[in-house]
Specification:
Layout (H helix, E strand, L loop, with lengths): L4 H12 L9 H18 L4 E6 L4 E6 L6 H16 L4 H9 L18 E6 L2 E9 L3 H15 L2
Antiparallel strand pairs: 1-2, 1-4, 3-4
Length: about 150
């Protein structure tokens, strides 16, 4: 008996999705957050940087001077979305831009479809995520990417 095409597609997607790993350590979270902070400060961007562990729990939060208060929660939501769905939050933003069936994402209360959230991988497993908020989402994503680059995964 052959599997329906949709089932085969789900199996293929599952094979590409990284597994969850042991949670990020505080020292690792600090390394990632410090690099994102340095990128934000280099550009004069008042941002909030949140690091969660592989369970989506907050490990570290920086609110840079003059960062808007609303970004505290948004940064955490971006990190939580990235770890919960094991993909960059920009993927959801892009899906919404495509329209059509993707508009149903707006009905999901457990994701933030804005760039700036990235999973943190160690040895190919998701150990946490970074969420950055405070500027345009492309700038948030740039600071988050600087954090990931410092982690070297």
């Amino acid at each position: 008996m052959t599997k329906p095409a949709s089932c085969a597609a789900n199996v293929a997607l599952a094979a590409l999705t990284p597994l969850y790993g042991a949670p990020i350590t505080l020292d690792e979270a600090t390394l990632v957050a410090d690099a994102a902070r340095a990128e934000a400060q280099r550009h004069g961007w008042p941002m909030v940087i949140a690091i969660t562990d592989s369970g989506g729990h907050l490990v570290l939060l920086y609110r840079l001077d003059q960062a808007q208060h609303g970004s505290v929660l948004v940064a955490q939501q971006k990190a939580k979305t990235a770890v919960d769905f094991r993909r960059p939050t920009g993927a959801f933003e892009s899906a919404l831009a495509d329209g059509g069936l993707h508009w149903r994402l707006l009905g999901m209360t457990n994701l933030t479809p804005l760039e700036g959230g990235l999973p943190i991988l160690r040895d190919g497993t998701v150990v946490g995520a970074i969420g950055v908020s405070g500027m345009q989402s492309t700038q948030d994503a740039q600071a988050a990417a600087a954090g990931i680059a410092a982690f070297g995964a």
